[in-house]
# Entry
Amino acid sequence: MPDVPDVTLEGLYGQMVLDHCRNPRNNVPLDAPDVEAEEFNPFCGDRVIYQLKLDQWGRVSGASARSEGCSIIRASASMMAELSTGRTLPELQGLSDSVRGMMQGRGIGDRPAADLGDLNALQAVRQYPVRIKCALLPWTALEVGVEMFLARQG
Amino acid sequence: MTTGSSGAITPVVGPGVDVETVRTDFPVLHQMVNGKPLVYLDNASTSQKPQAVIDTLVQYYTMDNSNVHRGVHTLSQRATDHYEEARAKVRRFINAEADEEIIYVRGTTEGINLVAQTFGRQNVGEGDEIIVTAMEHHSNIVPWQILCQERGAHLKVIPITDSGELVMEEYERLLGPRTKLVSIVHQSNALGTVNPAKQITDMAHGLGVPVLVDGAQSAPHMTVDVQDLGCDFFVFSGHKLYGPTGIGVLYGRADLLNAMPPYQGGGEMIKSVTFEKTIYNDLPHKFEAGTPDIAGAIGLGTAIDYISNLGMSNIYNYERELLEYGTQRLSAIEGLQIIGTAREKAGVLSFVMEGIHPHDIGTILDTEGIAVRTGHHCAQPVMDRYEIPATARASLALYNTREEIDALVKGIDRTIEVFGRGL
# Structure
């Protein structure tokens, strides 16, 4: 009999993930956002729209993430929106790097590691390779949105 | 197998399939996945292989491996014999008139592309129309879109009802003087609907329009008789029919195949080549350029032997009964909706659950050792029709059991337990 490692549900659908999924934070659309990006995965219909308002010092004063799809994308988007407020865009990029690093089991790149907070609850997704893309789709929206904003600023 | 009173060997199928015996023929089924016995319900994606098919591949590569139709040496002759014997098995399996009407391809997708690129290019011009259904797999949409784009032709789509049946009055309306081909799925992979292929063909032939039937899902699960259907082309894949991957079949009526230009150029498909002129080979070799999947073809022949021995009508009846049981069990689950409830339906249970995304269902079922497909099943227009992003799909094969349906129901209950209702 082939030796297949067992995968249990422990962790993946923990209380933290289900709580964010049932009660998504910061999912109200923003008026006139400074940063905005939408990502879609046609394979499964997962969709996320991410928006940010920045204050005069370039810190996030308001964040919104609206998502459709499975529990993992919804939890990930909610956590991302919650952790966005009060950070600068480079800090958000650092956070995104850390999340990618956690999911893909690699180093966190050049930027300083960020405190992942609730996002640590998504660590279990690593054991489900096909679901990693669900967890990362909101972060792709963040990266694309921030890059587009920074490009516009020159 | 058992020895009957006459001393002849007869298959132990009787009125149905002896599923316990059948299961012993499929080694892959006997393993634990995530600590649970594997329940393989993803047969519409690909089926598992009986030991006989696996042994055929091993035997071929161990003893007979050689190129076909090329050498005078013994191994080449042996390989060629087996390869052509398999073609004859395919011919008998779908009741084609002649072996030369059986073209080996990589699978259903390549079969359809072949027809689009040869028959299609030859016969479809500006303003012409090709008819498909709203429940096609992408492989029976995109090749025609490419052709239509190239030729300025139009793709017409027969709509479906809420239960997943074709609206035949609409089909009748769509058929017209500009229709150059009707290309329809025999059995929908996403809904399970079995379409009235014979009626569709008769109606098209009334206007002299040829018909292609995509049999990827039907050929493994029901008796197919291309002469009775009357279709002009029929395509299916080996890997969904308990055979190897990488091999499939295009059946075409000889007169149409003869009139069609070749698909790919190369070895095997020629009679003679000079830099000035090439004379193409006869059927079926004209459409089989290059060294084919010899082992795959021979393995497909063994797979056909295997299911023919069980009897296609036995298999159909067995799976039909299992489908009814599954439909009944799943329908009883609160908050679960089966997508595709056609009267004529084969072993597909596509479903959605209130507030729980199919991917979450699939992941939780996997932890219970249950393999289902989740997603759009390469049929995005079907998903759009029902305004859903995806479904979870359990698809049946001759080795599935009622106990496995029970395990599926238990897995779904576990999903509800994890997520709660109306998340």
